[in-house]
Amino acid sequence: MAQNSLGEKDLIGRFGGEEFVIFMPNASGKDAYRLAETIRKKLLETSKLINNNEIFITSSFGISHAFIDFRVDRPSFEELMNQADQALYAAKRNGRNCVQLFAGMLQNNERK
Asked: CATH number of the domain that 90 lies in?
C-alpha cells in the first residue's frame, strides 16, 4: 500500500521488526508529512475481519528531514535516523496513530 503512494525516485524498505524507512530525495519536510498522513489514513481505512471482530490498522510515523547542500556540513544517515526515531517515539507517546516531525525541524522551519 505504501509503495503505491511513493514517487518515482522514492524508496521504501524494512528497517527492522515493524519499522520501515522511506527515503524521499528532493522532497520537503511538508511533502514527507503529507505522504505519511496519506499512508496512515489509508491504513486506518483498511480493516480486517478476525473472529467476527473488525480490526483496524493504525500506524505511527516519525519524520526527519535534511536539505543537502554539499558546500556545508550535513547530517549523517545515522543522525537522520536518530531524529526520525525520536519523532516516532514522540508519536507513540502522543497516543499513537499519528505523524510526528522531529522537534528540531519545527524550529528550523520557523526561521525560514
From this structure: 3.30.70.270
By the 8 A CB rule, do 39 and 75 touch?
no
- Would you put residue 69 in left (φ > 0), alpha (ψ -120 to 50) or beta? beta
pLDDT single digits (tens) 68-101: 777 778 888 899 899 999 999 999 998 889 999 9
Q: Which domain holds residue 37?
A: 2-111
Q: Which three cell numbers stand for residue 14?
A: 524494512
How many angstroms separate the CA atoms of 71 and 97, rounded?
A: 38
* Residue 79 a catalytic site member: no
Query: Which of the following is catalytic: 18, 45, 78, 110?
Result: 18
What type of residue is 40? Answer: R
pLDDT digits (tens, 9 = 90+) for 1-23: 677 778 888 888 888 878 888 88
Alpha-carbon Rg for the chain, nearest whole angstrom, is 15
The structure's pTM equals 0.77
